[in-house]
Amino acid sequence: MPASDEVAYSLMKIAPDPMGPLLILGIVLIAGSVGGWVARRLHVPSITGNIVAGVLLSFTLFHGLNVAHALQGLSAFAIGLIAVTAGGHFSYRRIHNALRRIMFISVFESLMAVVVVFVSLRLLGQDWKVALLLGCLAASTAPATTVALIRENHAKGPFVKTLLAAVSIDSSICILLFAFVHSLLGGLYVHGEVALGFNEGIRQTLWQLLGSGSFAILLGYFTSKLFEHHRFHDFSVLLVCILLAVGLSQYVHFSPLLTCLFFGAYLGNTSRENEAQLNALDPIEPLLYTAFFTLAGTAVHLDLLATAGGLCVVYVIARIVGKGLGAYIGAVLSQSSPRIRRSIPFGFVPQAGVALGLVVILQGDDQVPAEVSSLIGTLVLAAVAINEIIGPFFTRWALRRSNEAGLDRPRLVEFLDEEFIMPKLKAKDKWEALEKLVDFYAATHKISKAEKQHVLETVIEREKEATTGIGQGAAIPHGRVNSGTNIQGVMAICPEGVAYDSPDDKSVRLLILIVTPKDHEKRHLEVLASLSMMMSNPAIRSRLMAAIDANDAWEVVESEESRSFNYFLETDD
Questions:
Q1: Strands 508-517 and 478-481, how do they pair?
Q2: What is the pLDDT of residue 252?
Q3: Taking Cα atoms as reference points, which of 130, 135, 90, 141 lies closest to residue 111?
Q4: Which CATH number fits domain 37-401: 3.40.50.300, 1.20.1530.20, 3.40.190.10, 3.40.50.970?
Q5: Element spanning 510, H or E
Q6: Beta strands at 421-422 and 488-498: parallel, antiparallel or unpaired
Q7: How does pLDDT run across 30-84, given as a tens digit for each residue?
């Protein structure tokens, strides 16, 4: 770049925007909302409409303005909130019986993207160091796009749970791989020897992982203590803590994304109350998402697509193929259901925040030659522009292909999700079976020891009054709690059967525990009748008894045969 151009560029970066940040934000929100509305009318993902609106703004009202610089604080906070939300979905109680599936899919889709992109670029004659850096960047997806699309499509189920957790993991994998390779190649560029950069690569990787993780845990502990003091507004507490997570991480050179992911995971795994607080910022999320994706559109420069040329096309295709192939292999090796195997390869196309943030780090490193960081920056920016426009179509199609779009609505038997199903219960008698069932309920619903003991006592007391076995190998024990907003429960499959004093004297192989708050007796009777009818259906009953895992059992509960019993409730929307 000529000296005169460098000076002009520097002045452009520091010159104040004539509109001011508040006016820019207002225009961004209006344009993004209109773009999203038009997109929905055209049956296009609203995120795509937000991005297109941003692109149009960059050519019209915002032409020549440094919009990203004016609103960089808002973008940083939005990315932090998105990462906290994604981390919260990595809750052990939600994924405990899907951990193998999630880990196989996320690791294979991340690493296969790295391999396929690296090999493809090397075949085009690219330097191996450039190919390796681009391969690492290809591992990331876009948590913001994924979360927003899931909410827009009201999707819920094992596929959604798997996709959200995998996106959180592959973002972490991308950051750690990049930290290692970046430090490794930094030493190579300076000293000409890989060995001199290896130790530094390990150190930077551990620094990002342990530093961000430790800070997130400390902040999470502090946040949970504030939640316990009801004089503090939950919305305000979470808002300030996310600001601290992002701001302090940037100040000490941790990864804000990793810190927020770990922070969300901490809240999602420590207590039921902390997990519930993750929804405190729900009222402002739609506005943040609209602003974030519209701003992303203003940063898209279509001329970069022409500059990157065929190399960009190869990168985009190689990344999509690598992620899709890796996700499918992971799904097959983890013995995922056909619904997940056929849909998961199309869920990882979007790419945005993580890759862009790492490119900024790369371009600010004096160890890496300017021509290398410039090439990678141009290529990744162009690829992100493509992936963020076409990616939402792929993800939305995957959500609909999995048949989980529209399932995030209240149902009569709300508690029969995958995470609340125990596929292999073993017990010598019904009393041991009931105790293990209550233990599983306590673990998956994060109740205290005192609450658990109360539920167990009410279950045993009800069982002593009269057996809850309904015949045909099924039983529906009942528990009570003093307060609550809805009926909860769990289901267990006992392949060997357990003696239960049922009316037909048959061993019980299906147990469904329902725990009802005092003021929900009418709904209790409705749920009990629904479950009784489900268990009386020979096809449903036999398929549940033959289920090999929790996901297999959930497929039965979600099937069309069960829909007439486990129906959607009417809402005020």
A1: parallel
A2: 85
A3: 135
A4: 1.20.1530.20
A5: strand 508-517
A6: parallel
A7: 999 999 899 888 877 777 788 788 888 888 888 767 676 667 777 778 778 877 8
Amino acid letter, 229: H
Which strand (E) or helix (H) includes residue 330? Answer: helix 302-333
Residues near 557 by beta carbon (within 8 Å), at least 6 away in sequence:
413, 416, 544, 566
What sign for the dihedral angle of Cα 246, 247, 248, 252? positive
Mean per-residue pLDDT for 209-225? Answer: 89
Q: Strand pairing partners for 480?
A: 516
Look up the CATH superfamily of 418-563: Mannitol-specific EII; Chain A (3.40.930.10)
Q: Which residues pair with 422 in a beta bridge?
A: 492
**pLDDT tens sequence across 359-371:** 656 655 667 777 7
Closest residue by Cα to residue 424 from 495, 522, 524: 495
* CA dist., res. 426 & res. 96, Å (int): 18
- Distance separating alpha carbons of residues 164 and 148, to the nearest angstrom: 11
Query: Does residue 359 contact residue 146 with C-beta atoms inside 8 Å?
Result: no
Residue 346 predicted with pLDDT over 90: yes
CA atoms of 520 and 517, how far apart (whole Å): 6
Listed residue (89, 72, 240) closest to 171, CA to CA: 89
Rounded-to-5 percentages of helix, strand, coil across the chain: 70, 5, 25
Residue from 107, 98, 121, 240 nearest 168 by CA: 107
pLDDT band at 510 (very low <50, low <70, confident <90, very high): very high
How far is Cα 150 from Cα 344, in angstroms, rounded to an integer?
Answer: 14
> Cα–chain-centroid distance for residue 402?
16
Beta bridge partners of 493: 510
Report the C-alpha gap between 463 and 404 in whole angstroms: 36
Q: What are the residues facing 432 on neighbouring strands? A: none
Q: Residues 101, 328: contact at Cβ < 8 Å?
A: no
Q: How far apart, in whole angstroms, are the C-alpha atoms of residue 118 and residue 315?
A: 9
Enter the pTM of the model: 0.72
Residue 237 parent element (H or E): helix 234-251
Inter-residue contact 340 to 388 (CB < 8 Å): no
Q: Is residue 209 within 8 Å of 176, Cβ to Cβ? A: yes
d(CA 29, CA 129): 40
- Among 16-20, 393-397, 567-571, which stretch is predicted with the lowest mean pLDDT? 567-571
Domain boundaries, the chain: 37-401, 418-563
CA–CA gap between residue 547 and residue 46 (Å, rounded)? 38
